[in-house]
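re: ur question from earlier - yeah i can do the single chain one, its not a big deal. heres the input i used so u can compare w yours
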Amino acid sequence: MPETLLRRIDDKREDLVELTRALVRVPTVNPPGEAYRPCCELLGARLAARGFEVRYLRAEGTPGDSDRFPRWNVVARREGSRPGPCVHLNGHIDVVEAGEGWTVDPWAGEVREGKLYGRGTCDMKGGIAAAVVAAETLLEVEPDLPGVIEISGTADEESGGYGGVAWLARRGFFSKPRVDHVIIPEPLNVDRVCIGHRGVWWAEVTTHGRIAHGSMPFLGDCAVRHMGAFLQALEDELWPKLARRRTAMPVVPEAARASTLNVNAIHGGQPLGEGLPSPCVPDSCRIVLDRRFLIEERLEEVKGEIRAILERLARERPGFRWSLRDLFEVEPVLIDPDLPVPRTVARAIRTVLGTEPAFVCSPGTYDQKHVARIGGLRDCVAYGPGILDLAHQPDEFVGIEDLVAATKVLALSIRALLRREPAAA
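and the output i got, formated as tokens:
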């Protein structure tokens, strides 16, 4: 039977490509969170036609949700012929902005030389299409399987997942007894199984000054200069220290096995409009820090390193005043690779690709964090088509061969989990 299943997926190559293209052509850009409902309906209509019960769920009141940009999610469920476990395949429908530097239309889904181009092909509409076609094909070949297959398309992963998986998890959608196993087809490369991720802390640091006329800056206190002193301290003290820290987690790429810090944004003084700004000394300057930390580090110590620099500058630098606001924080996640899902997916990779899979961790967080911490379900991995390094890049693409291979791996994995087949080491 698995041979028939794999051959049938080969026959669905064009359908797989066309579904991915259709999803890419719905520009679900987040922020602000556009076109979520049409994308959910595209998936829901297809799955309803295949016998799934479909629900559209709006995460009202979550960050970013509004009547203009409602946070819609779709959850489709197909009950089997007899009792058994539930396998849930979850993919986020939102994508980041296209940005500059594209040589193809980011929303067209152009196929060229075995690659499918477009924003979201890799991260992660190709993965959603693979999950859908895997489940559909499996049910065509073996309609009497036990258990339950669920597929969800969820909002806002790119901005934390609070209007998507987190909201659903708080309502029991990712907890036992409803769900037993979860696969998230994120693009971690087709021969790798992702079993966790580093931690993240986003924070806004503001330095405060005093406004004055720009021709007499000595009468004011420049908040931008104070921020410059803080950034210089990061350069001299913290960045070198972080580069020396290493984790035992199998984080990819290799450089991400160190702690990292990125300045996501900076703004000081008056915003630049159509004309020239008025001549003023800026009385505030804000930056957003994106700190990725290791499982060996404690979150409070991570925060304490930033506070220590700010407190020292306040003692040493005349007029230095600051404030710090937490924006977002997630602890690292690392699951046991001997749990059923990672072992089963690894076995399927061996079968389809004939290669030994690698167990890896993601440099950034993804919705596994909500499944594990809110849903309390540890048997969850990321596995899908796409090259991790292409996510959020111009000319993003997914290789069609990888798309087909990942669909086969997902189909074999769903089948084995529903049948409770033991996964070999």
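The first strand starts at residue 53 and ends at 58. not sure if urs matches, ping me
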